[in-house]
Structures are given as C-alpha cells and as structure tokens.
C-alpha cells in the first residue's frame, strides 16, 4: 500500500522524536533532507533506529524508548475482533480524527491488537488478505502520523489456533512463522516508533503442564525474534515486545521470560505482562468490595516481582493491558471510590518502578462516537497518576437517614504524601470547627452540615463535598439520603428473573447465597459472596435486582437464602425457591 506524503512526514518526525528521547541534542550544522521515499531516506531511517536502539555500550536506550511510550492506550475490540471486520464487536470504524482525539487525551503510545485468523488463507502459505493488511497499515500509519509509539501483535489467534501447539506443533509453528514473515515484510521500513509484540496472552491446551508451555512459548518467541531480525530494514533493530506465559506475573513465568531475553542477547527487547489487580477485588467476589490493605499489598508484591525480574536487570517493562476485569461486564462492578483508589495506587506503583502502562479500553471508557470519557472522574484519576499522587479517603459515600435524627459522621483521609487543604461545598471553603473537624487524618462532618446538605431528606443523592489536597485530584464525597431498601415478591424462570426493589437511595455492594443447611449456593461455591454482574446485577433506574441464568445454572432445586449487602451498611434477606426452571422469591 502506497504511503502518503503525510505519512512519510510522520516517519521522519518519529525518527526525530525517538532520537530526542534517547540522546542529548548535538550542536552541529544543518544538512538537506533526502527525498521522501528515497533510498537515502530509508537508509537514514535504519541509521536512526540503530542509533536510538543501538547495541554495545548504549545499554539504556531501550529503557528510554519504553519510557517515552508512557502512557499508553489500547484500541481494544476493533482490529482484534473475530468477526468479518473491525466493527463486528460493536465499535465504529477507526478514523484519523478518532486517533487525533485519543492523542489529545495525553497518550503517547497506542497498542493496536490485531487478530489475523479470519483474514488468512490456509497452508502452505497462510496468506493474509492484502486488503486487511492494507487496513492495518493504514491505521498504524495514522497513529504514527499523530506522534504515537505504536504496538501491533498477534492477538486472539493465541486462543484460536496458537494454543493447539502442544498437539499440533509443526502446523502451528508453520502458520505462526508465515504470519510474522508477512507482517515483518510489510512493516520492515516503517518508523522505529512501531514495535511488534510476539503474541497476546500466550496459552496452550492439551499440554503436559506448565514446563512444556514455557518451552513452547520460548520457541515461539525465538522464531518471532529470528524472523523479524532477519527481515532487514528497520526490523534489524526495531524494539520487540515479548510476553510471559499468559502475560502473568507468577515467579516461574517471569523467570522463564527473563532467561529467554538473556539468551537472545538483544538489547532491544521489552518484557510485557498484563495486570487487572487482585482478582477477587477486580470482579467483586468473595466480599472484596473495598480497595483494602490486602488488595493493595497484592499489587505491590506483583509489581516488585516484575521489577526484580526485568527492570532491575535493565529490561524495560510494558504493562500491555491494565484495568479491572469486572469492567467487561459492568463498569459499576467496583464502587466508584474504591475503583478510584485502585487506579490512583496503580499509577503510582507503576511509576515508582518505571513501568510503561497501557490502559485496556474496548469502548467502555472513551466513547468513540461522542469523543468523551464515559466516566470523566475515573480518567482524571488515571491521568493524574501518571505524574503525581492524589489524596483519597476511606469512602466517597456518606449516607444520611431519610428520617429521624442526623448524626455527625467521620471518614479517614489517605493523603498519600499530600496534605489536606480545604473541605469545599459548591467551590467555597467550609469552616473548620463548625462544619467539620480534622484530627490527624480523621475528618468528621458535623451533624449541622449534614442536616443542611440533606435538604428535604428525599431518598437519593443529596449533595457533594470536595476534599482538596495539596496535589493531585480532589476527593469527592457524595452525600446520600437513604432508607433500608425494600425487596418484593417475584416470580420467573432461571432464564429471566428479577426482584422488584425499592433502593431508597442505597447502593448494592454484594450478595451472599446459601442453601438452607448453610452451605454455599451458586457458582464458585468456595465463597458465599457471589460475583457482581456475573450472578446478580442491580438496575437502579428500573428498580430491580436481576439474578442471571449463570447463577441459576449452578443452583440446586429447593430453597436458597440470599443476603444483600448495601453500601450504607444495611443488609436485606430474601428467599428463593427453585423447581426446575421455575423460580419464586419473597422477602
């Protein structure tokens, strides 16, 4: 596919950007530029990337390039879609204007996951549809023109056919080799700001165990490395990204990849892992509704292990995907304040260890039609964490009873290295000693202030306060009038069952399910606390709590006792009776 003059200009700009990121400016005279597309220009590109990612004594340059990629964003559920084209999973076609909008959000790199299998012929050549390869090149070119560092890969192919390697070794290796040979050839003269990732979340089925899987991944990474390096052009020194098994962070996975990278003896390699936090918190199961000390320590320990395996040894790390797993089902799976605390700490912990981070976004975060963040407060916290810490608090919720006496309430502030500056209402500072008191990090809101904010006490959101710290994003406290929720009788089937619910201002945190004998009911019965959005889901607008077919698929006939835990601290019990596919419920 012919490159436009605009794209060629982007390549030249990319070379300059790469060089600027890894070397001090040199004082010298100017020279005339070669003609775009000429042999001289191509040679200049190769020389530039060699200088930017060179071998020998220039050991730090690959780390500088990885650092220049911070922060990054994923173009998820687009070219990685497994349907007929990039719109098959519901996202619109990518445009130059859309990529401009993403660049304007402050991202410096973009990971473009690509699934090739449905656009690829069979053996012996496994030819990629030229039109599809053209489309990938077009989007890559637009991103490079915007100044992005760009990463492309083999994505869902990992579970579609690469995973059969234990039982179909030669055929998989042939297809993998053919695929990367074609990609490398198409992009071998592209800007050095383009990186290749060997395979997304590598996994294997039918293996003899993890030892064999680690060997198979090492083989794939070696083949990938040899094909790309042997294809010439900029590929001779292009930064390459190698994943751990499953892109996980278990010590065996990290150590295996560290050994591979050492054996390849190539200073232009980057390690990648993915991180979605402590799993029970990430999907809201087993009662992990809060970003507590255990959840934080899990993230700290994982990052320390990754740092020790790679960064401390001079191998840069890209966290190629991060977020919360529950977002794929419901962005409210984790309560707002708790998710903000997670992302605040995640960004800080990654920055302390010099990791490059790439936010996973399959369309649930940045609206690709309206060009805005669906949750601006969440993005404000994420983007702030790239450079600084923000203060938080034990909660962002204060519930005031919709009737009866109003009492003072306290929250514990977490300054995170900042200091308290003011408590604001509608932009005006409230009065210490009257509206609130601060003893150490204990912030107490006076009864008089809460009475005033509660207004007519109608159940639901009443008002907001803002805690301003000396740095970072302010912390918003939502004041909510609340009564104990009321659940009503319901009937339905295992395929369609919803409990009519008057939430009366409250918010659902989690649900427990137990049989009459006290044993745990439903999926993942090692815990009584069920997974948010997978087994149950509140709909505040409709006034219902839905129990999903996935929940009932693993529930025995008979009685199931449910306990709904709300963020106010209230709990409500409810009884189900399941007979075949028929379900009834009553409070």
UniProtKB/TrEMBL annotation:
Pfam families: CBM46 (PF18448), CBM_X2 (PF03442), Cellulase (PF00150). GO terms for molecular function: beta-glucosidase activity. GO terms for cellular component: cell surface; extracellular region. This is Endoglucanase. The keyword Cell inner membrane does not apply. Belongs to the glycosyl hydrolase 5 (cellulase A) family. Keywords: Carbohydrate metabolism, Cellulose degradation, Glycosidase, Hydrolase, Polysaccharide degradation, Signal. The lineage of its organism: Bacteria, Bacillati, Actinomycetota, Actinomycetes, Micrococcales. PANTHER family: ENDOGLUCANASE, PUTATIVE (AFU_ORTHOLOGUE AFUA_5G01830)-RELATED, GLUCAN ENDO-1,6-BETA-GLUCOSIDASE B. GO terms for biological process: cellulose catabolic process. Residues 394-479 form the Carbohydrate binding X2 domain.
């Amino acid at each position: 596919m012919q490159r436009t003059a605009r794209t060629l200009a982007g390549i030249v700009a990319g070379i300059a950007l790469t060089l600027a990121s890894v070397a001090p400016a040199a004082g010298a005279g100017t020279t005339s530029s070669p003609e775009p597309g000429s042999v001289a220009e191509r040679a200049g590109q190769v020389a530039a990337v060699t200088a930017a990612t060179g071998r020998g004594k220039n050991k730090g340059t690959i780390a500088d390039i990885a650092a220049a990629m911070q922060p990054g964003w994923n173009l998820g559920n687009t070219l990685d879609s497994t349907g007929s084209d990039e719109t098959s999973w519901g996202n619109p076609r990518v445009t130059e204007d859309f990529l401009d909008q993403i660049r304007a959000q402050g991202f410096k790199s973009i990971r473009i996951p690509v699934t090739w299998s449905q656009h690829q012929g069979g053996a012996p050549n496994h030819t990629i549809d030229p039109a599809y390869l053209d489309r990938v090149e077009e989007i890559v070119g637009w991103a490079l023109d915007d100044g992005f560092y760009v990463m492309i890969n083999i994505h869902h192919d990992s579970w579609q056919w690469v995973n059969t390697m234990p039982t179909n070794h030669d055929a998989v290796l042939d297809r993998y080799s053919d695929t990367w040979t074609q990609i490398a050839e198409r992009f071998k003269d592209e800007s050095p700001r383009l990186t290749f990732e060997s395979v997304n979340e590598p996994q294997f089925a039918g293996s003899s165990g993890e030892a064999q899987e680690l060997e198979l991944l090492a083989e794939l990474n070696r083949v990938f490395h040899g094909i790309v390096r042997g294809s010439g052009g900029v590929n001779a020194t292009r930064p390459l990204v190698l994943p751990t098994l499953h892109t996980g962070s278990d010590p065996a996975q990290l150590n295996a990849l560290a050994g591979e990278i050492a054996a390849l003896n190539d200073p232009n390699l980057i390690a990648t892992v993915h991180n979605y936090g402590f799993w029970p918190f990430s999907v809201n199961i087993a009662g992990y509704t809060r970003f507590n000390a255990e959840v934080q320590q899990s993230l700290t320990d994982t990052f320390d292990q990754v740092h020790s395996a790679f960064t401390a040894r001079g191998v840069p790390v890209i966290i190629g995907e991060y977020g919360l797993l529950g977002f794929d089902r419901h962005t409210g799976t984790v309560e707002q304040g708790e998710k903000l605390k997670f992302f605040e700490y995640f960004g800080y912990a990654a920055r302390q260890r010099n990791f490059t981070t790439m936010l996973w976004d399959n369309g649930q975060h940045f609206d690709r039609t309206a060009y805005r963040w669906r949750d601006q407060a969440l993005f404000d916290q994420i983007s702030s964490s790239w450079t600084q810490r923000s203060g938080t608090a034990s909660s962002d919720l204060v519930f005031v009873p919709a009737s009866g006496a109003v009492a003072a309430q306290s929250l514990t502030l977490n300054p995170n290295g900042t200091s308290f500056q003011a408590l604001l209402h509608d932009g005006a500072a409230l009065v210490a000693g009257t509206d609130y008191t601060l003893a150490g990090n204990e912030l107490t809101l006076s009864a008089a202030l809460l009475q005033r904010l509660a207004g007519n006490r109608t159940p639901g959101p009443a008002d907001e306060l803002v805690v301003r710290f000396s740095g970072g994003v302010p912390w918003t406290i939502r004041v909510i009038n609340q009564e104990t929720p009321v659940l009503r009788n319901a009937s339905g089937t295992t395929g369609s069952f919803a409990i009519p619910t008057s939430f009366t201002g409250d918010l659902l945190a989690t649900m427990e399910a137990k049989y009459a004998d006290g044993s745990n009911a439903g999926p993942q019965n090692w815990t009584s606390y069920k997974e948010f959005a997978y087994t149950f889901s509140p709909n505040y607008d409709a006034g219902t709590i839905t129990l999903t077919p996935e929940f009932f698929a693993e529930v025995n006939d008979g009685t199931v006792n449910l306990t709904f835990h709300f963020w106010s601290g209230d709990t409500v019990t409810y009884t189900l009776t399941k007979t075949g596919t028929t379900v009834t419920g009553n409070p």
